[in-house]
Amino acid sequence: IKYVGLFDGTLHRFQLDGILSTDLGNMESDLFVDFNKDYTNANYKGDVLLNDFELGALLNDSLGVGAINLNGEIEGSGFALDSMNTTLKVNIDDFVYQDYNYKDIKIDGLLNQGVFLGELKLKDPNASIDFDGKVDFVGDSPEYDFTMLIDTIDLEKLNLTTEPLRLHAKMDMNFSGKNVNDFDGSMNLTEIYVSNGIDSLA
């Protein structure tokens, strides 16, 4: 690990303006951090940029997550998912999942104690999605309340299927549950279009 840049302040309260180089990739920051006395929490505000950062390796992920390039603004407190209270404005230039390089993802919202409230827009040539709503990641039964327009998804080109399959739909969701067996709530699907390149359903 190598850091080149400015460190201004004390060990508890400081400004970071520089580049952190690791085996996983590079992180540039212009970030103010204010830790509490025992380093269990901190307030922070600033800009972060990741260059070819191997997110999957960091998370010890086996689902096919790869490198990510992003720049974002963050302001808030906390590091653990269930204690964070942070506003996010993130532009993801590209992000690898299942050997497909997704382009142009924008996230604008609030992550508060494991609950995300905001917008996600994906404008990739093979996946165009507009999400607006809330997702609760914590608790025994995750909760979802959102609308999402799936303008176009080509699952074959995204390496999610081995056969041609394209989807379009509008979703209005308000439910809880970890899987279909404990689903509780409502799901409304409209404007549905499905095509396998030969037949289509609308």
Task: Tell me the Rg in angstroms.
Answer: 20 Å
How many H/I helical runs? 1
Approximately how much helix is present in the residues?
under 10%
The secondary-structure class comes to: mainly beta
Give helix and strand order, one letter per element, not per position: EEEEHEEEEEEEEE
**Annotation, overall tally of beta strands:** 13
Task: Explain the layout of strands and helices.
Layout: E1 2-9, E2 13-22, E3 25-35, E4 42-54, H1 55-58, E5 65-77, E6 85-97, E7 100-112, E8 115-124, E9 127-136, E10 143-154, E11 166-176, E12 184-195, E13 200-201
Antiparallel strand pairs: 1-2, 2-3, 3-4, 4-5, 5-6, 6-7, 7-8, 8-9, 9-10, 10-11, 11-12, 12-13
Index terms:
13-stranded antiparallel sheet, 2% helix, 13 strands, 202 residues, mainly beta
Could you describe the 3D structure shown?
By secondary structure, this protein is mainly β. Helix content is 2%, strand content 68%. The chain has one helix and 13 strands, in the order ββββαβββββββββ. Strands 1-2-3-4-5-6-7-8-9-10-11-12-13 form a 13-stranded antiparallel β-sheet. β3 and β4 form a beta hairpin. The longest helix is centred in the first third of the chain and has 4 residues, at 55-58. The protein is globular and about 65 Å long. 7% of the residues are buried.
